[in-house]
Design goal:
14 helices, 36 strands, 8-stranded antiparallel barrel, Beta-lactamase, 4 domains
């Protein structure tokens, strides 16, 4: 890359940029590599070189650092795990289209179709696996080196959500299986394999994983988006999201995919990774092997091939963006914001690099559409209820066409119902309006800012699918175009005979997580609720901040199952739930590996409770009633490797000992909950102030 203004930048010097000025909360590090210089040219950070106390006292003042921070790169790890297995493909040890069972003989599932899952399907998200195994995925100050080996046993009880190879839908578990294949065939620990065969050849010297992060130096401080400093935690699903690295090392790894660079992979393997899994439908996912996308319209129009992968872990966010022919690799890592914002920043950096090469880019123009107030009667057949998955979780969209003038969408969620109106446009899609027609009429068809366009599609089986197009503009940051299938028409089957029995068991109850080890980040999102749908008997919403809001269909008095078959990543991370009763009361178990106990099973915390005996397998849950509400209770003694969480009546964390500098005085919100966690034999002692 030619640099016309600043030779120092090309030689690898550092530029500091304020994260706050960029609208991203947290620490920001980014790098770009040019094939001509082979060196990183930019990195930014905040809070460097300060103790936790100094960071709290001084807030977000920037400080110079001689070394870069190390971040969890989240799902960018999927490119690492894919590259690891592709290296074994180059060595003739793995065949991409061979069954996974050839390499993991004990892999089996409660669904005979599992035998058809190939290694390639793990890489391109078409395996049909439900999605993600959440148990033990994030641990504070702890690690679990056995998680990969235990994955086949966990998957054994699951079914598939689709035929293998039918469509791509984002799937974390597939990449942990790739990491396991790497371990089995190389005879090496996955982390060590990545370091030796992927990082050392590319000059990376800071890379580790969620099972080695405790021994790593220069980890980025673990700030939440609200600027709260937490204990360091480690992402344990290392094949799917647990690689740790600096921005420089991540960008250098990306540079190994440049055209003509065969340090880690052959040209054939890199080409395979950069080939889209399918080109049959723009509303399906457009990923390659490991990559989220292998082309982008705004770059393709300029004759530029780009590869991209984003990632989000509990605290860190990442994006890796490449232009392999132009030999540019951009890595953006933060501990605030999101991978979406990081991706837009990576595009902005890549654009600057390309412009210096004389390549001008422009965003595609979305033609202005005119609204039509005369909807043909044939659309009446499309009216009805649709199961829709969106950014805020699952809803049921009730679609009607009042007086054939506009489309009215009533979105029924677990706690509220919202309405939105759409106008038919000349191309047959419906664009959302900036107002409700009931309030403002149809005289002026004013579209919303960044309107979403909805269209109806009928597949080969006669199913009606909803598709969405949207070009979101973030002022001062960039644009993001999205095309996805987002929903499917519900079949209208009546509720099963035992649905009412299921509803009676779960109605009005909260379920509290009880299966996770004491160090688990699962306690940051500990509550689950099953909410029946009054208008649609036989369907329930399952709500948990970890797994999101899911819409399930009751199958009998003890089971509710995911039923959607939306052919895109809007069908990711599906779960089934099972109700179980024993002498301790009612429990709910998810197919993703989590277990919750009903609130009726737990006692109140009263003045008589002075000591809490701890157990790895049994978190000590208590309710906070009127007797102790607003009282000041102090932790008098707490053993190492233990934790305490306090939640308000909405299930929100108001206190956790994982916050650095937290006092020993416990808040006691009325109708809240408190949980004490620790190892066998430990005791937490309380005292009243």
């Amino acid at each position: 890359m030619k640099n016309k203004t600043d030779n120092k930048r090309i030689s690898g010097s550092t530029i500091r940029i304020s994260a706050a000025a960029l609208g991203i909360a947290g620490i920001l590090g980014f790098n770009a590599l040019s094939g001509n210089s082979g060196k990183a040219f930019a990195e930014g950070s905040e809070n460097g070189g300060k103790t936790a106390e100094e960071q709290r006292e001084n807030g977000w003042e920037a400080a110079n650092r001689d070394t870069e921070y190390v971040y969890c790169v989240g799902s960018v790890s999927k490119v690492y795990s894919t590259a690891a297995v592709m290296r074994l493909v180059d060595e003739g040890k793995v065949m991409l289209d061979a069954p996974v069972t050839d390499y993991i003989p004990e892999f089996h599932m409660d669904d005979p179709r599992y035998k058809d899952i190939t290694v390639r399907m793990l890489m391109d998200h078409t395996s049909g696996l439900m999605g993600s195994s959440y148990s033990g995925a994030h641990l504070y100050g702890d690690q679990n080196e056995d998680l990969l080996d235990k994955l086949p046993e966990h998957l054994a009880g699951q079914r598939l959500k689709a035929d293998p190879g039918e469509y791509a839908s984002y799937c974390n578990d597939g990449f942990d299986l790739l990491a396991l294949i790497t371990q089995r065939l190389s005879g090496m620990d996955f982390t060590e394999y990545v370091k030796k065969y992927l990082m050392e050849p590319t000059g990376g010297d800071s890379t580790g994983s969620g099972v080695t992060y405790l021994s790593m130096k220069d980890l980025a401080p673990a700030y939440t988006a609200g600027h709260v400093l937490y204990d360091q935690g480690g992402t344990q699903v290392i094949g799917a999201g647990g690689i740790y690295a600096t921005a420089s090392d991540t960008a250098r790894f990306g540079a190994a995919f440049f055209a003509g660079d065969n340090r880690i992979l052959s040209e054939a393997s890199k080409t395979a990774m950069a080939t889209p899994w399918s080109d049959k439908d723009i509303y399906m996912d457009e990923n390659g092997l490991g990559w989220d996308f292998v082309s982008m319209d705004r770059y393709e129009d300029a004759g530029i091939t780009v590869l991209g992968k984003g990632g989000d872990s509990l605290m860190n966010h990442a994006f890796l963006l490449l232009a392999p022919e132009e030999k540019i690799s951009v890595s953006v890592l933060t501990n605030g914001g999101s991978s979406t914002l990081n991706g837009l920043m990576a595009e902005a950096i890549l654009d600057v690099c390309l412009e210096e090469e004389g390549i001008q880019l422009s965003d595609p123009e979305w033609p202005a559409a005119a609204g039509i107030c005369d909807i043909p009667e044939e659309y009446d057949a499309l009216a009805g209820a649709y199961a829709v998955s969106g950014a805020e979780g699952a809803v049921i969209n009730k679609i009607t066409f009042p007086e054939h003038k506009y489309m009215h969408v009533e979105s029924v969620g677990p706690y509220k119902t919202t309405c939105q109106d759409f106008a038919l446009t000349e191309d047959g899609r419906f664009a959302d309006l900036a107002y409700e027609v009931e309030d403002s009429g149809t005289d002026q068809m004013r579209f919303a800012l960044n309107p979403m366009y909805i269209s109806f599609h009928t597949d080969a089986d006669g199913r009606i699918l909803l598709a969405a197009d949207q070009n979101t503009r973030l002022p001062g940051i960039g644009e993001q175009a999205q095309h996805f299938y987002i929903g499917e028409k519900m079949d209208g089957d009546p509720a099963c005979a035992e649905a009412e029995a299921f509803v009676q068991k779960v109605s009005g109850r909260e379920f509290l997580i009880c299966s996770e080890r004491p160090s688990s980040g699962g306690y940051d999102m500990a509550f689950l609720e099953v909410v029946p749908t009054k208008e649609f008997p036989g369907y329930v919403f399952v709500v948990n901040s970890g797994i999101g809001t899911r819409l399930l269909k009751i199958t009998d008095a003890a089971h509710a199952a995911a039923f959607t078959d939306i052919p895109s990543s809007r069908n990711r991370d599906l779960v089934d739930v099972t109700l179980k009763e024993d002498e301790n009361g009612l429990k709910l178990v998810t197919s993703s590996g989590l277990e919750f106990t009903s609130e009726e099973n737990i006692p109140y915390l009263d003045a008589s409770v002075k000591e809490i005996d701890l157990s790895v397998d049994a978190p000590a849950w208590f309710k906070i009633g009127k007797e102790t509400a607003n009282a000041e209770i102090t932790i008098a003694e707490r053993p190492e490797h233990s934790a305490v969480y306090v939640y308000n009546k909405f299930g929100e964390v108001v206190y956790t000992t994982h916050v650095i500098g937290m006092t020993d005085i416990l808040p006691m919100p009325e109708d809240g909950r408190i949980v004490f966690l620790g190892e066998d034999g430990g005791t937490i002692r309380l005292a009243e102030n």
